[in-house]
Amino acid sequence: MKEVKELTWKYVIHYATKGNLAPDRRVEKTPEEWKEILSPQQFKITRLKGTESPHSGALCSIYEPGKYACVCCHTLLFDSGLKFESGTGWPSFTQPIAHNAIKYEKDSSFGMIRVEVLCNTCDAHLGHIFPDGPAPSGLRYCVNSESLILETDIS
User: Fold this and answer.
1) Has 73 been annotated as catalytic?
2) pLDDT digit string (tens) for 92-128?
3) What pTM value is reported for the model?
């Protein structure tokens, strides 16, 4: 499937079922190494596929310019210009910075079928993606605040 300028639900499902794009680089660490650099909450969310309570994350209501990176490996994932208020209680974005920044996997936990989003560089769990976002893409990347860091000094 050719790469397109803007991802749509069709492409997300394709990546989740047929395979993801290759990342620019890979970062792999043992659980012990991750525990040394992450807080207990960050480790639970990113390495054990946990979630934070809605409206509890520090980045939920921040809309200042910058780029959001993976808390584990610092790969740039989302631009603040594509963040929007979804009313869900988690930071929400319409597109990733690059198509290969995010990995998509089918998630059938908790008796439902969803698409999980992970950092494609280090496999950190970020959250899930849904086809109920704003136009034009219709995508909503619903991301745990604890899985991100906001970098405001990047141009």
Assistant:
1) no
2) 999 999 999 999 999 888 788 899 999 999 999 999 9
3) 0.93
Peptide bond into 136 cis (omega under 30): yes
Length of the chain in residues, anyone?
Answer: 155
CATH value of 9-151 in 2.60.40.10, 2.170.150.20, 3.40.50.2300, 3.40.50.10420:
2.170.150.20
Secondary element (H or E) of residue 126: strand 125-130
Domain limits, the chain: 9-151
Please work out, in degrees rounded to the nearest 5, the angle formed at the alpha carbon of residue 102 by the alpha carbons of 100 and 108. 135
What is the DSSP annotation of 56-122? -STTTT---S-EEEETTT--EEEEGGGEE--SSSS-EESS-SSGGGEEEEEE-GGGS-EEEEEETTT
Catalytic residue, from 70, 73, 119, 142: name it: 142
